[in-house]
Write a structure and sequence with these properties.
The protein has about 425 residues and is an alpha/beta fold. The chain folds into two domains: about 5-205, P-loop containing nucleotide triphosphate hydrolases (Rossmann fold), CATH 3.40.50.300; about 210-390, P-loop containing nucleotide triphosphate hydrolases (Rossmann fold, 3-Layer(aba) Sandwich). It contains 16 helices and 15 strands. It has an eight-stranded mixed beta sheet with strand order 3-4-2-5-6-1-7-15, sandwiched between helices. It has a seven-stranded parallel beta sheet with strand order 10-11-9-12-13-8-14.
Length: about 425
């Protein structure tokens, strides 16, 4: 199937060709015709890197009336970085059509945002807190909105934005299209749909498509004292490493990036404690490859859209299969191969296996793995059991179905992470 067969106008097709898109992705093939011709609301299950922004951006651009100087589409994202990226992507797809797009988010002076909104903006992309701030100030009017979109909806719910989302939703007209895009489909998403959507349709990839097929996945069992050494082996052995190292805490990102810099690697930290200006500068340096190693937390790296990443390292094992999917989805994109390496502590293999089963992937043992002496293995396994115990995860269906407002099918507590101490590792010698 080609973009020409999706029902897009010639002006939009010209913009698509200029972007270098040759054929639509799965989510684009399913969503674009539905938005152009139908009137039902949509939940799109698709991970970052599958072209979901264009899936909703192209139909929105088609539907925008440039003569109406009012906000006609509101797009909410969980992070500032993602808001900027979505806004930039829409701008790159509008071609010559005079569709004005603006991103509003915290961490920046509100004055320039107010002036931009006063001049007239058709599409507003923003984080829930700053959008709600503008609404309460009277500087953002959503009474003319035709599209209400939640991007990375699962992460926004995880981050506790539900109250802000509901408050913003109440400011929009009753008649509009509601779209939610999510890499996973937890029960909270469907509860939100039943509450705020009319008749809606779930456009979902199958479970084995949730993780990019082009990602080679391996795990390394390692104790804390050896993690930095093992990471350096990966960096040195990759040849041309360009990727993200995921850590569990902000403090760990700072400490690890500093150790890597002292060792001569081009590394920087990205975390929520940084100012917005600092985060933007760090991300720009990484995107332009002036920085080769980005050491980040899940939240800070959420939605980062960089096409050429060839490595993802899980320096700390993610708590859920959903987090694992989001992390490794940063590589192996747009037909390019990538590699994901996951560090696990002794005693964490059971959780790794459950993550793999839930995500429907195979994670092989790496050749870099080293034998851990029995006495240290037993000690760390006991430590891991005390700190974490047994955790459960939910499995999501990959079927596509249509639903009514009551949630019936028509025909057709966040876990807390805890850092491990490396107290035992000082006695560990190789």
């Amino acid at each position: 199937m080609s973009f020409e067969s999706l029902g897009l106008s010639e002006a939009t097709l010209v913009a698509v060709r200029q972007k270098g898109f040759s054929s639509p992705t799965d989510i684009q093939r399913e969503v674009i015709p539905r938005l152009l011709s139908g009137d039902v609301d949509i939940i799109g299950q698709s991970q970052t890197g599958t072209g979901k922004t264009a899936a909703f951006a192209l139909p929105i651009i088609e539907a925008i009336d440039p003569k109406i100087k009012a906000v006609q589409a509101i797009i909410l994202t969980p992070t500032r970085e993602l808001a900027l990226q979505v806004a930039d992507e829409i701008k790159s797809l509008r071609g010559r059509k005079r569709v004005y797009v603006y991103a509003v988010y915290g961490g920046q002076p509100i004055g320039p945002q107010i002036r931009a909104l006063e001049r007239g903006t058709h599409v507003v992309v923003g984080t829930p807190g700053r959008v709600l701030d503008h609404i309460r100030r009277g500087t953002l009017d959503l009474s003319s909105v035709k599209f209400f979109i939640l991007d990375e909806a699962d992460r926004m719910l995880d981050m506790g934005f539900i109250d802000d989302i509901e408050a913003i939703f109440r400011e929009t007209p009753r008649k509009k299209r509601v779209l939610m895009f999510s890499a996973t489909m937890p029960p909270e998403i469907k509860r939100l749909a039943r509450r705020y959507m009319g008749d809606y349709e779930v456009v979902s990839v199958s479970s084995d498509e949730l993780v990019p097929e082009m990602v080679d996945q391996e795990y390394i069992e390692v104790v804390p004292a050896r993690k930095l050494t093992m990471l350096r082996k990966i960096l040195d052995g990759a040849g041309d490493f360009y990727g993200i190292v995921f850590c569990a805490t902000k403090r760990e990102t700072r400490e690890l990036s500093e150790k890597l810099r002292r060792a001569g690697y081009s590394a920087e930290a990205l975390n929520g404690d940084m100012s917005q200006a600092a985060r933007e500068r760090t991300f720009w340096r990484f995107k332009t490859k002036k920085t080769r190693v980005l050491v980040a937390t899940d939240v800070a790296a959420r939605g980062l859209d960089v096409q050429d990443i060839n490595y993802v390292v899980n320096y700390s094992l993610p708590m859920t299969a959903e987090d694992y999917v989001h992390r490794i989805g940063r590589t192996g994109r747009m037909g390019k191969k990538g590699k994901a390496m996951t560090f696990i502590m002794p005693g964490e293999f059971r959780r790794l296996r459950y993550i793999a089963q839930t995500a429907g992937v195979e994670i092989r043992k790496s050749e870099l793995s080293e034998e851990i002496p029995r006495e240290y293995r037993e000690r760390y396994e006991k430590e891991n059991q005390r700190n974490h115990g047994s955790r459960g995860y939910s499995r999501n269906s990959g079927r596509s179905r249509s639903y009514g407002r009551d949630g019936r099918s028509k025909k057709g507590g966040r876990s807390r992470r805890r850092n491990y101490s490396d107290g035992y590792s000082h006695d560990y010698r190789y």
